[in-house]
């Protein structure tokens, strides 16, 4: 196989701000130009260290999702470099990149993307497909993950039988059932009322406190302001990073 992927590290609360973990995501002058010629991301440089909880903020169309997709290896840059967990994305085949992504990165989206005909349990268990884990163990792990997001009594409910907040918590359980090192959330509270949104944010905080590195795109200034680091984007360029200049 290729480069070794580092194993789990101690929880974030074992570290001080000046003693943060290794880089888990690094973009170096990464640009993305879509077919048609629009440059949605323009020479973005950004480093995220293990254990961080980062808000990505900016107006609609500013390039936030494009940035998150590069960070999550869902897309490749048109120019510049992206490194995720020590892998130079350009050096990996699509197949190898998918394997790294499936093992180490969990995604949460505004629209949940749950399978409508599957129960919460089966939706979450599907987060363990291709992990070499048998069916009954997948269901056990899924039940545990749903317990952890407060949905232990909703295992057999289908998405239409869940509230918006419960659907998003199910999606979070699916994202983390494989114990990823990185969770990337694209407007996870965008479709929720404020109380459900607050519960989702609290879940992300809890995950982060247990050691998961998290980046969350948000439109909500209150949410962004409550997170330890904010990266703002305008017109495809990173304009401000509240962590930049901090001694590492
Ligand atoms: P945000 O998430 O901040 O709203 P996006 O990263 O989704 O912004 O989009 C940035 C710009 O890139 C927008 O102008 C958008 O229309 C364009 N864009 C996004 N995805 C594509 C795509 N797949 N093909 C062409 N243009 C795209
Ligand atoms: Mg977006």
TrEMBL record:
Gene3D superfamilies recorded: P-loop containing nucleotide triphosphate hydrolases (3.40.50.300)
PROSITE patterns: ABC_TRANSPORTER_2 (PS50893)
GO molecular function: ATP binding
Keyword hit for ATP-binding: yes
Keywords, alphabetical: ATP-binding, Nucleotide-binding, Transport
Pfam families membership: ABC_tran
InterPro entries: AAA+_ATPase (IPR003593), ABC_transporter-like_ATP-bd (IPR003439), ABC_transpr_LolD-like (IPR015854), MacB-like_ATP-bd (IPR017911), P-loop_NTPase (IPR027417)
ABC transporter domain boundaries: 25-247
Protein name: ABC transporter ATP-binding protein
The species this protein was found in: Streptodolium elevatio
């Amino acid at each position: 196989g290729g480069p070794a992927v580092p194993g789990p590290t101690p929880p974030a609360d074992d570290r001080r701000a000046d003693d943060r973990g290794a880089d888990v995501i690094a973009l170096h002058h990464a640009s993305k130009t879509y077919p048609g010629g629009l440059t949605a991301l323009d020479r973005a440089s950004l480093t995220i260290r293990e254990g961080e909880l980062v808000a990505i903020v900016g107006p609609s169309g500013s390039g936030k999702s494009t940035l998150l997709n590069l960070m999550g290896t869902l897309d490749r840059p048109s120019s510049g470099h992206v490194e995720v967990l020590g892998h130079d994305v350009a050096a990996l085949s699509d197949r190898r990149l998918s394997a790294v992504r499936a093992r180490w990165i969990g995604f949460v989206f505004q629209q949940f993307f749950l399978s409508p005909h599957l129960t919460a349990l089966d939706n979450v268990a599907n987060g363990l497909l291709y992990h070499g884990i048998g069916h009954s163990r997948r269901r056990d792990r899924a039940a545990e993950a749903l317990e952890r997001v407060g949905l232990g009594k909703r295992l057999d409910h289908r998405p239409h039988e869940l509230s918006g907040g419960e659907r998003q918590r199910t999606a979070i359980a699916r994202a983390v059932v494989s114990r990823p090192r990185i969770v990337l959330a694209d407007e996870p509270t965008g479709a929720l009322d404020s109380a459900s949104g607050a519960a989702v944010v609290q879940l992300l905080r809890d995950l982060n406190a247990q050691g998961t590195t998290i980046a969350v795109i948000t439109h909500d200034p209150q949410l962004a302001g409550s997170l330890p680091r904010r990266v703002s984007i305008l017109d495809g360029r990173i304009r401000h990073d509240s962590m930049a200049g901090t001694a590492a």
